[in-house]
Amino acid sequence: MSTNPPDLRPDLAPRARLGDTGRPGQPSIGMVSLGCPKALVDSERILTRLRAEGYGVSPDYAGADAVIVNTCGFLDSAKAESLEAIGEALAENGRVIVTGCLGAEPDYIREHHPRILAVTGPHQYEQVLDAVHAAVPPAPDPFIDLLPAQQVSLTPRHYSYLKISEGCNHKCKFCIIPDMRGRLQSRPAHAVIREAEKLVENGVKELLVISQDTSAYGVDIRHAEDRGHRAHITDLARDLGSLGAWVRLHYVYPYPHVRNLIPLMAEGLVLPYLDIPFQHAHPDVLKRMARPAAAAKTLDEIAAWRAQCPDITLRSTFIVGYPGETEAEFQTLLDWLDEAQLDRVGCFQYENVAGARSNDLPDHVPAEVKQDRWDRFMEKAQAISEAKLAAKVGRRMDVIIDEIDEDAATCRTKADAPEIDGNLFIDEDFSDLTVGDIVTVEVEEAGEYDLWGRVVPA
Length: 458
What we know:
Its cofactor is [4Fe-4S] cluster. By secondary structure, this protein is of the alpha/beta class. It contains 12 helices and 20 strands.
């Protein structure tokens, strides 16, 4: 049982959960997956391919013949975390293959860790497999292995991330993700639906739709229609909503066509939840960021969304201390947050990242000022969250059960994404519940980020 908020860095995914799947004599690979949910999906795909070739998946360093470290390069602090993870894997195992976003800088990695066996960039699945084959030759048992592999999942069985595209066409000055992962590459809609159908057939109750820019899905392939499915986010959301699972949309830029998603939420086809990276509210800061949004129009959009779907939950992340941010610009952000009344908010202090254009902007904000603004921002966001949750006391709502221990069942409402949002705890009469169940509860108590409730008898 844990309470929120967790680390509010927006580039984090749930910790990968590995099980011991080995057989005697089977070559085994370990995986350390860092960074965002998109990287977690990459890790799942790599392990699925390896499983299909007869490799086992080791949950610890000692049982692995080699370790893959899937790195993050979103911020300098994330790069440092990746280098630390590589060093730990080298110390504990010694045979390490590096992939992921930081893998786009092989010289930088080898400068710190020259003993690594190989390094590849993000979503370079074939190169990772080649590196594994060279380090640990496959030794499949034809009577057990080499069968069509079930997808390896690094999340609990009842929810799964569903990546619909790779890359991004934006040129935000603080971000180097497009440089590492390339321009937008949308998956065909029929392929996304087929994957989603298989996940639901295997027991997944919640699909978390992710990409770098979910709103732009299909733009690069001109919203092509194939096998009855059109590559447009509205059509895709409607098709996914027909599968009977919860559908949660992440990383949705507030383009005008996003308003077409709101009726689907009001109808119950997809969850009334939007994760929108606003990043700031002052127009001059947004211009310096090269962000594709206008703060004034955004408030109008939010009001329109809530008018159509009063239960909608809005989550966002923000940057404080961006180069040139004045006290007046920061106060505009606080005032905007007062008016927007977002339900779930994450915030991080601006950091330089090697290769980002924002590094060259003038008037960088001192560290102590960034910390002060972060503290003030989070104090306001916490007060808004506390008031919104208090208003839910006495309401009945459906929750999905993520974990059960001796103290409570840890659940999430439709307003809560795994790991980054709040929880609802059932700490009485929960012995008959099962992880993955969706049950109706009555909310009895609220805190700053979490709720407590009891199960409503069927």
